[in-house]
Amino acid sequence: MDAAEGLKKIAWAEAHMPLLARIRDRFAVGRPLGGHRVGVALHLEAKTAALIRTLREGGAELFVVGSNPLSTQDDVAGALDGMEGIQVRARRGESLEAHHANVDWLLDNSLTLIVEDGGDVSVRLVERGSHTAPELIGICEETTTGVERLQELEADGLLRVPAFAVNQARMKHLIDNRYGTGQSTWGAIMGATNLLVAGKNVLIVGYGWCGRGLALRAAGLGARVFVCESDPVKAVEAAMEGYRVVTLVEGMRLADFVVTATGRPGVVGEEALAAAKDGAVLANAGHFGYEYDNAALAAMASGPTEVRAGVEAYALPGERSVYLLARGELVNLAWGDGHPVEIMDISFALQAMAAEYLVVHQQELPMGVHPVPDALDDAAARLVLEHLRSE
Amino acid sequence: MDAAEGLKKIAWAEAHMPLLARIRDRFAVGRPLGGHRVGVALHLEAKTAALIRTLREGGAELFVVGSNPLSTQDDVAGALDGMEGIQVRARRGESLEAHHANVDWLLDNSLTLIVEDGGDVSVRLVERGSHTAPELIGICEETTTGVERLQELEADGLLRVPAFAVNQARMKHLIDNRYGTGQSTWGAIMGATNLLVAGKNVLIVGYGWCGRGLALRAAGLGARVFVCESDPVKAVEAAMEGYRVVTLVEGMRLADFVVTATGRPGVVGEEALAAAKDGAVLANAGHFGYEYDNAALAAMASGPTEVRAGVEAYALPGERSVYLLARGELVNLAWGDGHPVEIMDISFALQAMAAEYLVVHQQELPMGVHPVPDALDDAAARLVLEHLRSE
Amino acid sequence: MDAAEGLKKIAWAEAHMPLLARIRDRFAVGRPLGGHRVGVALHLEAKTAALIRTLREGGAELFVVGSNPLSTQDDVAGALDGMEGIQVRARRGESLEAHHANVDWLLDNSLTLIVEDGGDVSVRLVERGSHTAPELIGICEETTTGVERLQELEADGLLRVPAFAVNQARMKHLIDNRYGTGQSTWGAIMGATNLLVAGKNVLIVGYGWCGRGLALRAAGLGARVFVCESDPVKAVEAAMEGYRVVTLVEGMRLADFVVTATGRPGVVGEEALAAAKDGAVLANAGHFGYEYDNAALAAMASGPTEVRAGVEAYALPGERSVYLLARGELVNLAWGDGHPVEIMDISFALQAMAAEYLVVHQQELPMGVHPVPDALDDAAARLVLEHLRSE
Amino acid sequence: MDAAEGLKKIAWAEAHMPLLARIRDRFAVGRPLGGHRVGVALHLEAKTAALIRTLREGGAELFVVGSNPLSTQDDVAGALDGMEGIQVRARRGESLEAHHANVDWLLDNSLTLIVEDGGDVSVRLVERGSHTAPELIGICEETTTGVERLQELEADGLLRVPAFAVNQARMKHLIDNRYGTGQSTWGAIMGATNLLVAGKNVLIVGYGWCGRGLALRAAGLGARVFVCESDPVKAVEAAMEGYRVVTLVEGMRLADFVVTATGRPGVVGEEALAAAKDGAVLANAGHFGYEYDNAALAAMASGPTEVRAGVEAYALPGERSVYLLARGELVNLAWGDGHPVEIMDISFALQAMAAEYLVVHQQELPMGVHPVPDALDDAAARLVLEHLRSE
Known about the structure:
Chain A is an alpha/beta fold. In chain A, about 45% of the residues lie in helices and about 20% in strands. Chain A has two domains: about 5-170 and about 340-390, Rossmann fold (3-Layer(aba) Sandwich), CATH 3.40.50.1480; about 175-330, 3-Layer(aba) Sandwich (Rossmann fold), CATH 3.40.50.720. In chain A, helix 3 runs parallel beside helix 15, helix 6 (about 120-130) runs parallel beside helix 7 (about 145-155) and helix 8 (about 170-195) packs antiparallel against helix 15 (about 340-360).
């Protein structure tokens, strides 16, 4: 653990997160989170650190754990831990027991706000009994998965505070899913394989916001784009963009690169995998690592053999090979640094403003999961435009 | 009036409207509109004739007037009028009195369905008293304007039947507004001016679905695109596409071509017009001809002088000229043949299916304005995909 | 003939030809063509008039005929004929005898310079004997065809003066062929057919400079682009741009629109025509109207039937139809106003500077056909950049 | 040194180099290089190994050194060294003395052919006296630099054999420079910085083949592209593509990313650097690391401070920072794996065919530097097309 290295990473991120910088300046004056005790459970890397420091600047005291032991960067955690008003308990690769112990430690701190990614803290809180956090006024949740877990709690009558579904903001799915996923996924695929994209056939499975970004960037890199999409209206949109709409099996026969972004398990199943073109590179840009049916792949193919870092070959019948990237996990997190810094700046600006909103409107907000207010979405967008204009 | 010429135009349109063709085939078997008396008030040109003939094939008897005396094509009206089961009363340039008389004639025919564009027939029906059309079971309305008039009737308790807002279907605004408007507007601007688009600055005012199509095609023609948009989230989307987001006045200073698509009156007002670059070409792609403040333009400029067919020059102070196309009316209707045939095929397929739906579900549908059911949207999309696949 | 209308057309063109405007300003001061008698044989329309008036401003006396009786616009010819120092003999649709008589009249005027398009004047001069134009110092030829005729004269020892092949300038083929042809051809196809380009398959036959522009604009309109090209290196370039490289027959089977730009006769022959997809639209963007084998088409198909102005249907075996635009002639001249004004501004600026160069360097230039000096190419490019910068 | 790792890298490369694979198959049958002793001096990494093994398959005996001690990959060198008919002397980071000794060892092997990158072997041969390699029949040189050194030798009468300038092949500069540089440079910039490209201003300095690829991919990633180019005709081409043509200083004021590809030293000098926008990222895609004037930068700025691996910050007056990537060296080699595999497949296929050509035509080829014959260019292109077609 080299805290100096962590500080350097944080400085690079903060230098490229102008929205958080403006919020930090405003928070430093108004101290809207003064007296609040905020529990944070996020991927502990440099961009997240910028959010944590912004909340601190707003007057809060911060208690921090990682949301996933595998994504914690020890140098960043170490750098943060030394800062005034910030306590961190997280270590890369720590055991699940250690992670759970850290979550419990977090909840022992009389939290007034929770900012998290995945819902672990909120679920644990309910397990312990909501009365164990009597001062809690609200939750900001970053991910779809976490929001779904909160909604289950709400359905069971167990969610006793308001919670914001940051993921559903327009600035999140219109910008992050499309332009963040588009760039970072192709950056990762190019880096992992060193293969040319121009002149190749690319199959995008799923034409939602992520799929649109993936298709746009594939075309921008010179590929011919094929789209497989079950919603017929979206499929017509893809056709009108000049992409070729195909069934999954047709697409697999043609594609040199396949990228999934459907959010559904096993979308690329046995029949599709059996149809794959020799040499096809298979990558996933959806949140979970289950869009390729790995079990079916293992059953029909010999392998896997690691042929490059993060690239595993499977030998299919008929002298064909396919290459699965990052075992089907999110390729842009497994290879490279994830979303571009400025994209996370937008998403984290929404988080910081949502936390402030919970404090200011704590009397009015009913219990339950809420969409982020339009006003915050607009405010984030206005900050982006202001920054562009200032240039 | 040359009915032979009209038949030729109808044949060209029908040859390129595969969705209506498939519906026509299905209608010819099932005759779902058998016994119905349908009153039609639409722009009477070849593409519309294909819809009318499809309804006829479904078993309906058709009574037809124009929705606007200026858009009626006499050869098409003449060709239709001779066909079995179709009666037409419309003449290009007829007086408003004649038009109103035609609408009254329409309503004298014990209509069971109304298919229209703009709401004139529905409004007149209410004036006459809804009891004068006792057999009417529903209305299909094509335009935003017509829908708004129907909603006013509904609010006043005067709409006694169900009405479908065809305009609000996803296949309408996602496809027609974006790809139809994009192509036909630029086709019209290029034709009207004979000017080069590549290397020019293009300002798109309004980044809704029409604006997105206009920007996409401008970039595709080699222009640098500037976008002015009041919704900050949409403005960020434009920036992420690589367009430059500007204020209206900044954009006017830079733009060689300005295209409006906001739907709001006087959006390009005095200050913006005063800032216009010398030689700027001003066009409108929004439904109404009021997006440029023509009165302000007339007050500050000398002119207009017609310098090419449909192109009027205004001389501004400082030795500058601007060129207003089609007096600010929808440029793609004023110059050329409007939307591409295949685009209207989709919109009219929705109309035909909506009429069928009204008949089949007449017992269940409550009074009032309804969105087109998702099932119809999906069915239209599936027909497009089927057609693409059959190729 | 309405000279007022002609003046209006000329005014529109000149207002959008900033390069000629700057040259005109310079010519008005320096009068580099003072005392020269220039014979002009060009397509007599508004853009050409701007060139003629520029030469006049340089001090020359102008004698003008049309280069093709079918392209002469009488209102423009009439407007020009009234101007000081300009005499015109041309009428739309005049007989070949009349045209030849006009060319002879031209040569009776002791010309010192010839500016032409197609080589008719130069060839006639040789027929009459070069001694009949003793004061002639040079020729500026616009087209490939004209240059080839001059090269034949040169090979036969009959070309007694220097001649510039304006067509071979970089600013001509890199700009005019690519961006001029790209825009004007697609404008014409969209206007002639009212069909949608987005989502369609487009086959470009020939991937030279014209073909590149045609492909670029097709992709920009939302089409999927297929390219057929015999030079393998060019074909690889097309593949790297994301286009699909196909054989002609494969391409014909898939294409909704086919555009030829090879310059070679009968390129799309019997086998290819027999493979055409039902409904295919066939257009030509090459200089001559012979790229489709019309004889083969007539032999295998019934028709043609005109189905829209300039659109002829041929019925092929197997219930298929294809639509030939403008009988296979250059579609952008047959439908619409040809190249955008600013494109002709560049080409005609080269003409004007080439004429000046011939005068200034008349002592040094040997007999024979010469490429336009790089300095003129660069000067034209610099004028474009200056104009862009001044905006 | 882990030869197993090296074998894995070579296997990945060879699996994606179909042109070399086809040549290898042909060579294995015809053995066109049988009995030849080939000296190779190239960047010793996996893609190069595929070329070396192809030459071996053609019957040659191979003697191999690195062309640059810093680019040698020891695992690849080790894997190669164990193969039959291949001897390698190279070590990453070896001293210049060791490198020179290796070159001398190479020349001690009675070479008949030299395949190299940079000209070191040819120059050393002349130093030793051409009589020391009496059996040498020719040289294949990959780079511009090497070709220039050979041309100097030729001018001095010291080049006694034919040499092919592989770099000047059309398939090299049209494909490798454009699509290889475009993808690999942006892959490297995105990886090195984790910054967003969409919505940013990108300045491309130099609009040659590399610059065109860089601009194309920047636009494809959603950037607004600015181009600085001294050749006015090329600058007009850039404008027609929709890029904004600027002076260097204007561009520097606006650009978030600057990428140079001019091949000229110190192109981005003091005045330009002083104008840089705060936060600008400076990268070089030209062959040599001298396009930014590092001395001027050091003089006007404090720093450099390494802020991320390969990213150095310079603090300029006025609270501005700029970030120089890879100290101004070729960013796509310094970060990542260089050109995509398939691009090097094309360039190395040209090398292999050029070596074969030298053997077959050794009687006919005069001494001196020659362009690669068109037939080889076409053959390489045909192999690409064949491979695309076979898919």
